[in-house]
Design brief:
By secondary structure, the chain is an alpha+beta fold. It folds into two domains: 78 residues, lambda repressor-like DNA-binding domains (434 Repressor (Amino-terminal Domain)); 372 residues, Nucleoside Triphosphate Pyrophosphohydrolase (Alpha-Beta Complex), CATH 3.90.79. Helix content is 33%, strand content 18%. The strands form six sheets. Strands 5, 6, 12, 13, 16, 17, 18 and 21 form an eight-stranded mixed sheet that branches. The chain starts with 11 loop residues before the first helix and ends with a helix.
């Protein structure tokens, strides 16, 4: 048993068994409860308990192991719950193989596979250490007219409206007829970005390699909405979306970033080469980054949160832990930020949650107040319950104004970014965030406003320039800050 989530070693075997069966954590919990009753021992396993087993935070008791084995049709030894041991150096193949055996006699891992995975991890470490610099170089690969200053973001004409759009001034629409994307990240063009899974094959998807070879603390696949169209000339369907999954985006986006890092991080991993298309096979294969029919673009809602009163405007940042998240780790980001996705797999959630403000509210609950994330398997979010009800009431009363400043792509990953800003009256901000946390599952919070005035970040040109030039600000954060400053009169109602 791990002493904390940070010390836990994920149980990838159990995770893979569930994923291979196409089941949610709630499905597994329900099945175990049924089996327990069948064996005359009523139990009450929850989806959260299954999650804790998979994350290695707690271990399953012998009886629960028996039920898990019965449910998945494997032996107890195949559940990945046995202790691994490393064979002694006297093994006859020690020169060629790092022998990793489990108590149930699983086969050796060939040296070539370990070397491939080790090299992949090294490139990924370099990628995560230089995401900001690599994004800025990646932006140089595209036409200068697409670049949003030096932020590392790119956007084509029409994706950024002339003035920020109040969320109440436009609607979004579900594009039920959207065809499946052409590029999925499983193509031969991306093969070099995926390590060997065995001597015979590479990992089929980049997300599978992350899961098995370099698993961050937070890395779960979820249903998500895929951007299929942008038209700010409309009010009824300015943004259109189809259905997709988070990992569907990761498989292309992180492969593009990995390829860029492999070609452009030089020396001892501390220098970035000038942008060049040489060696960027997968990026060339992908083609037009703004072609929403070619790949699945699952965007995040990135919300710059500003507190305003008579003394001026301040904003909040988030220092994201490098080992906690798969994307933007080790960087400063605005908060809240999160993938645009429903709170549950249940059909009711997919209807109720298809709303930008509701997605932002859930992120406020999680990142600002430290509440549990709606993990996708349980009940949908209840917008009549606190704290979501208070966020909704504050906006309805005009105490918080929320704008969308446009859509852009992180040039490194080509992740989609819905650039938004929420402006709170000082008293409202202090009331809603009176219990603001110091840290959350994704990193450390840099507080703002009267809640902790000594750490407030003033919304001034000087501060923005220092942050953007500092090399740690995530491209989406830099883009939000830059656009908010350009449109500050509209957003803040002052010069």
């Amino acid at each position: 048993m791990a002493s904390s989530a940070a010390d836990a070693t994920p149980n990838l075997v159990l995770y893979n068994l569930r994923e291979g069966a196409g089941e949610t954590q709630q499905d597994v919990a329900d099945a175990l409860n049924d089996l327990g009753a069948k064996h005359g021992r009523p139990i009450a396993i929850t989806a959260n308990q299954v999650s804790r087993w998979e994350r290695g935070i707690t271990g399953a008791t012998p009886f629960y192991r028996k039920l898990l084995a019965e449910h998945f049709g494997v032996s107890v030894a195949e559940l990945g719950l046995t202790r691994a041991r490393v064979a002694s150096p006297s093994h006859p193949r020690a020169a060629d193989v790092l022998v990793i055996r489990t108590d149930d006699g699983q086969p050796d891992v060939p040296r070539r596979v370990l070397d491939s995975q080790g090299q992949w991890r090294a490139i990924r470490r370099a990628l995560n250490a230089h995401r900001v610099a690599l994004a800025r170089e990646a932006a140089r690969l595209y036409d200068e007219t697409f670049r949003i200053g030096a932020t590392g973001l790119i956007a084509p004409p029409g994706w950024l409206p002339d003035t920020p759009k109040d969320l109440a001034a436009f609607s979004i629409a579900l594009d039920a007829s959207a065809a499946e994307p052409v590029v999925t990240g499983t193509e031969d063009a991306s093969a070099a970005t995926r390590p060997l899974a065995s001597e015979e094959r590479r990992y089929a998807r980049y997300s599978q390699a992350i899961r098995d070879v370099d698993h961050p603390r937070l890395f779960d696949n979820r249903i998500a909405w895929r951007l299929t169209g942008v038209d700010w000339g409309r009010t009824d369907a300015a943004l259109r979306f189809g259905m997709s999954t988070y990992f569907g985006m990761v498989d292309t986006a992180e492969a593009l970033a990995h390829e860029m890092a492999a070609q452009h991080v030089t020396g001892e991993g501390d220098r970035i080469a000038i942008a060049s298309w040489r060696g960027l096979t997968f990026r060339r294969y992908l083609g037009d980054p703004f072609d929403l029919a070619r790949r699945g673009l699952v965007p995040s809602t990135d919300t710059l949160t500003i507190r305003i009163d008579a003394d001026g405007a301040t904003f909040v940042l988030h220092n994201r832990g490098a080992g906690n998240v798969a994307v933007a780790g080790g960087m400063l980001h605005i908060m809240p930020a999160g993938v645009f996705q429903p709170s549950s797999i249940l059909p009711a959630a997919q209807v109720a949650d298809f709303d930008l403000w509701r997605n932002i509210m859930r992120e406020y609950s999680e990142e600002f107040l430290g509440n549990a994330e709606h993990g996708g398997d349980g009940n949908p979010a209840d917008y009549a319950a606190e704290p979501l009800a208070s966020f909704e009431a504050a906006r309805a009363a005009g105490q918080v104004r929320v704008y969308c400043m446009g859509v852009a792509l992180d040039a490194l990953t080509l992740y989609g970014e819905l650039l938004t800003v929420a402006v709170y009256e000082g008293e409202t901000y202090d009331r809603l965030f009176a219990d603001m946390v110091d840290s959350n599952d994704e990193g450390v919070v840099v507080k703002t406003g009267k809640v902790q005035p000594t750490s407030a970040l003033p919304f001034t040109r000087h501060v923005l320039d220092e942050l953007i030039s500092g090399g740690r600000l995530a491209p989406a954060a830099a883009g939000c800050l830059e656009l908010a400053w350009q449109h500050r009169q509209t957003i803040l109602g002052r010069n």
